[in-house]
Amino acid sequence: MSSIEKNVARYLLDIKAVQLRPAEPFTWASGWKSPIYCDNRKVLSYPDKRTHICKYIVETIKQYFDNADIIAGVATGAIAFGAIVADMMNKPFIYIRPKAKDHGTGARIEGEMHRGANVVIIEDLISTGMSSLSAADCVAKSGGNVEGMVAIFSYNFPKARRAFENADVELHTLSNYDTLIDEALACDYIKAEDIEVLKDWRFKPDTWGVQ
């Protein structure tokens, strides 16, 4: 476990961007029952934590994708993070809509991306990975070279890991579910008896809590 993973997990817990509620599960838009709810956009309201997280993203890009030409954000959660990172790196910025807009040019990519550009995509959260990989596919089909993706947090679902491997998209995340649970326990955010429930959910999120 790296210091960045631990720091980011602590930031998310400190500002309650992540809520852990094993006894009273949340319902996701997909219909899945979940003991966790993560809203990384709350980080934007905390300048010190926002700055640290964006610096970590920059460091990750420089370490793994040093020939990046363009920084892209996935709408809507990663637009602000991507724009801040692009500004820190003095790089052009684009963002990718979940689907083409139904007016004007009908574009899905907003901003200027020349063919052959090396693009690093920023995400705030990886769950199943489908929307993130759809954004990567859009960049590739539009002539960009997807260098890889950097996300603030991942649930680390086996399904998502396989999807990124199959799509041949390199993914690096600042923090993840396992680290978050460890830190939550260390700071008494959750009880020891909640651990098994939380770990069980990650391996079968689609059926967990279904009666």
Description:
The protein has seven helices and ten strands. The chain is an alpha/beta fold and about 210 residues long. It has a single domain (about 5-205), classed as Rossmann fold, CATH 3.40.50.2020. The longest helix is centred in the N-terminal third of the chain and has 18 residues, at about 45-65. The radius of gyration is 17 Å and the shape is globular. The model has no long low-confidence stretch (mean pLDDT about 90).
Describe, in short, the structure shown.
This protein has helices at 3-14, 47-64, 79-89, 130-141, 158-167, 177-186, 195-203; strands spanning 18-20, 26-27, 33-34, 36-38, 70-74, 93-96, 109-110, 118-126, 145-154, 171-176. By secondary structure, it is of the alpha/beta class. Helix 1 crosses helix 6 (177-186), helix 2 (47-64) crosses helix 3 (79-89) and helix 6 runs antiparallel to helix 7.
Strand content: 15-25%
Pattern of helices and strands? HEEEEHEHEEEHEHEHH
CATH C-level: Alpha Beta
The end-to-end span amounts to 35 Å
Poorly predicted regions are none
Number of helices, counting only DSSP H or I runs of 4 residues or more: 7
| General shape | globular
The largest β sheet comes out as: 6 strands, mixed
Structural class category: alpha/beta
The whole-angstrom Rg is 17 Å
Q: What distinguishing features does this structure have?
A:
Rossmann fold; 211 residues; globular; 7 helices
